[in-house]
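Title: Prediction job returns without error message
Component: structure pipeline
Severity: low
Priority: P3
Assignee: unassigned

Description:
Job completed but the reporter wants confirmation the result is attached to the right record. Sequence as submitted:
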Amino acid sequence: MSTAMKSASPDVRLAHTEAVTRAIGVMRERLAHPQPLRTLAGAAAFSPFYFHQVFREITAVTPARFLATLRMAEARRLLLHSNLSVRQVGARVGYASPGTFSAQFGQLTSTPPSRFRTRARALGDARAAGASWWSRPHRQPYGGAPAMVLTRAPEPGSLVCACLMPAGSLRVHRGRWAPSTGLSRVSLTKPPACGEYAAFCMVIPAGTRIVDALVNDVPGSLHIGRARLSVSERPPPAVRAELRRPAPTDPPIAALLPLACPPDAAGPT
């Protein structure tokens, strides 16, 4: 956090949040169109340099990364609920090249678009409480890894997924998510190198359909926690995060979670 941000008054921080929210609204309305930094900064009434700084401070990622995540979230929704081709889905969210869209989708979500469609539809009515199989594609957390401690424990049977990203990025550290089931302390993958990170945690309540939380963005289907982690020692420190409903300035991080398939689901896994 910059010195200016640290010393900002509550009124200034509120104004910054409102400005960033306006810019995010423009992003959502114009997903299929180019969105240069200058245009987004204009929506916030900031200079491009200052807007970039404020945006990253409030959302934990850069404007370009936030926009990429919004596009992935909408693409996932279209892949699940429409019969549009992968090419058409890519065009709907701003990619003129099908190859570029497929590469970006696979890079950010760890699943090609066509396979995501198969897996998302295979989830059907699967609820978080019955998703113990979710951890099968993931390695177990490593000893010495940092942990996220939630301010309140999720209800029993909730699906809890956490990840660690280099600050300002959407690159999940080591490409791994750390699944848990209803715990308030979640280990975060391999111990990272020294540096600044953003730690995210997502909790899907026990009775919630998994696709409602990870694809449909149904209100109340997902709670999140977010914290900054500065790694300069071994073992890395634990970080505390308030569990809450997503806010407009939270990147739709659920769009980056790879989907697993129930063991009895048809189709490729």
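Comment from assignee: result matches the submitted record. Strands lie at 147-150, 159-166, 178-181, 185-187, 195-204, 223-231, 239-241.
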